[in-house]
From TrEMBL:
Protein name: 4-diphosphocytidyl-2-C-methyl-D-erythritol kinase
Gene: ispE
Stretches assigned to coiled coil: none
Domain GHMP kinase C-terminal intervals: 215-289
Active site: K27, D152
Length: 302
């Protein structure tokens, strides 16, 4: 974290000004169907779930209307402010709701470029933190800002299990009290989301499973989900980054209920309905990529 941010935040605290802290969780795609394209964007149908890897956002008010964002972890220190959607989220929040500025610090724990929604999580986390800080309860207004900054940012405001359609801005939350357990592999090199979507027209995935995944979860049959995992961006992603296929294949022998890529990659995961089975499989993994144990969750229940 930059020292100047630490100093500004400390001044706010010493003046007895309020500070808030929120967690913003990563997500995985249980399914991702490419359903068409319109106006330069691809339309999707995707079932997603939050997982227990999160970025930590703190916010303290300023009196001068300015926004300062400091990020640390996962190489985020090198992100230029003009390319940082977390900065844009804060600026648009202040412009829309007429509040004062803020000092914002983000500790990143979500791997960058892994298809886990880290950038979108930061947008949602900043909006949620500022809403909490300033008592803003306009959910539609927050989602409007989020949708402007990324297709799945609106979903990230609440997270949990959901089905996203359109560009990802249409979100239908799923009431599911169960949990899936994961082994997440993280190839070092990411995959360009824009390039992956563009190549998906050349390398399409014909298998569409979002409706079936949604039905299985809503119907209380989570054991069916593993066989239904799919990702329409996978054929394009492995062309861009062959490590994605290597990681994917490395999970196939572990006896998981299913294996899938999340987002546009490069992260892939093995899914288990049973925690002990996941833990046993993790001990057997001898592949070349970092492996992380994780599980799905509903953030509001944490």
């Amino acid at each position: 974290m930059h020292k100047n941010i630490e100093k500004r935040v400390a001044v706010c605290y010493n003046c007895s000004m309020q500070k808030v802290a929120v967690r913003s969780y990563a997500k995985i795609n249980l399914s991702l169907d490419i359903t068409g394209s319109r106006g330069g964007y691809h339309s999707i149908d995707s079932v997603v779930a939050s997982i227990n890897i999160c970025d930590e956002i703190t916010a303290a008010p300023r009196s001068d209307g300015r926004v300062y964002v400091a990020m640390c972890g996962m190489g985020s220190e090198d992100i230029p402010p003009e390319k940082n959607n977390a900065v844009k989220a804060a600026e648009r929040f202040i412009g829309r709701f007429g509040t004062c500025g803020a000092d914002i610090a983000i500790k990143k724990n979500i791997p960058v470029g892994a298809g886990l929604g880290g950038s979108s999580a930061d947008v949602a986390g900043v909006l949620n933190a500022l809403a909490k800080l300033y008592g803003v309860t306009d959910g539609e207004g927050l989602k409007a800002i989020a949708d402007e900054l990324g297709s799945d940012c609106g979903y990230m405001l609440r997270g949990g299990f959901a089905r996203m359609t359109g560009r990802g801005e249409r979100v239908c939350h799923i009431n599911f009290g169960g949990r899936f357990y994961l082994i997440l592999l993280l190839p070092g090199e990411g995959v360009s989301t824009a390039r992956c979507y563009a190549l998906s027209d050349v390398y399409p995935e014909k298998r569409h499973t979002s409706a079936a995944v949604h039905s299985a979860i809503c119907g209380g049959q989570p054991q069916k989900v593993g066989a239904l995992l799919s990702n329409g961006l996978y054929p394009a992603a492995v062309v861009i980054n062959p490590s994605v296929r290597e990681a994917f294949d490395g999970l196939l022998s572990l006896g998981a209920d299913g294996v899938n890529m999340t987002g546009s990659g490069s992260g892939v995961y093995a899914l288990f309905c049973d925690r002990d089975a996941r833990d046993s499989a993790l001990k057997k993994y001898r592949g070349a990529f970092p492996a992380v144990a994780a599980h799905t969750l509903v953030p509001e229940e944490e």
